[in-house]
Design brief:
- With about 250 residues, this protein is an alpha+beta fold.
- It has two domains: about 50 residues; about 180 residues, Multidrug-efflux Transporter 1 Regulator Bmrr, Chain A, CATH 3.20.80.
- The chain is built from four helices and eleven strands, in the order ααββββαβββββαββ.
- Helix 1 packs across helix 2.
- The protein starts with 5 loop residues before the first helix and ends with a strand.
- GO terms for molecular function: heme binding.
- Belongs to the HEBP family.
- This is HEBP2 protein.
- It comes from Irena cyanogastra (Philippine fairy-bluebird).
Length: about 250
């Protein structure tokens, strides 16, 4: 057997040491991100399990704003008052979404748990075995009573499938996630910041209803909360969407 030269021995040991260091840093980053999400989860009374460490890390690494794909829409009208944007009227085309129905005690619990399930689907737990890519916003369908005075517990959290996957969406391993095709829709959208809970959502629904010239053109008991930042973010960018009647 040929003797290993000191040079090649150094390189082989050096590369394995570098790999070990990289793995250790990888593990430390996973732990740090998982701990952060777990602490945020506790604030919403949500348990973030250990098996979320890898999807959280993958999503965080791939969450550069320039790599996020925005859901395409056509702007129909912008309504402004004294330079402030009151709302936008938009047209969204027919598209496929990965959807999960949730019914926790609190809205924040439903969106956190629903988002975690969708994260697993996005992060390789699908029939393609690939990272699917993040699209924004992640949306939540909420329902109220006819008087728009209270929300129901059942919500649907949904992820818009990237353009390249629209024709053949990868199959989710999680049987709770359903691929649905939503029809083309006209939406009235108003932006707001901060946490989303039953109180803030009802406030935004009432605010947009008061601003719209013809709120009767929209569905009275079904609304969408569009989230542009993940549920762990402190100062979230959200929108309330009213859906025009078909």
């Amino acid at each position: 057997l040929a003797e290993e030269s000191p040079d090649s021995a150094y390189h082989s040991h050096g590369s394995s040491l570098e790999e070990e260091a990289a793995e250790r840093m990888d593990d430390e980053e996973q732990e740090r991100l998982l701990s952060y999400w777990q602490s945020v989860g506790r604030g919403h009374q949500v348990d973030v399990p250990r098996d979320m460490a890898e999807p959280i890390q993958q999503l965080t690494r791939n969450n550069n704003p320039q790599e996020r794909q925005s859901i395409p829409f056509t702007l129909i009208q912008r309504k402004e008052k004294l330079g402030d944007l009151l709302y936008e009227k938009r047209h969204y085309g027919k598209a496929k979404w990965a959807c999960i129905k949730m019914k926790e005690k609190q809205y924040e619990q439903s969106i956190c748990l629903g988002f975690m399930k969708l994260m697993r689907y996005i992060c390789e737990q699908n029939s393609s075995g690939l990272y699917l890519g993040i699209t924004v916003p992640i949306v939540t369908i909420v329902h109220t009573n006819e008087a728009q005075s209270a929300m129901t517990q059942a919500v649907t959290v949904a992820y818009y499938l990237p353009e390249v996957l629209q024709d053949e969406p990868p199959h989710p391993f999680d049987s709770d996630i359903i691929i649905e095709e939503w029809p083309a829709t006209i939406v009235y959208s108003r932006s707001f910041r901060g946490i989303t809970n039953e109180d803030s959502i009802m406030r935004e629904i009432n605010l947009l209803a008061a601003i719209l010239e013809s709120p009767e053109l929209c569905l009275r008991d079904t609304f969408i909360i569009a989230g542009y930042t993940n549920p762990a973010a402190a100062n979230r960018h959200n929108e309330i969407w009213f859906l025009q009647r078909p």
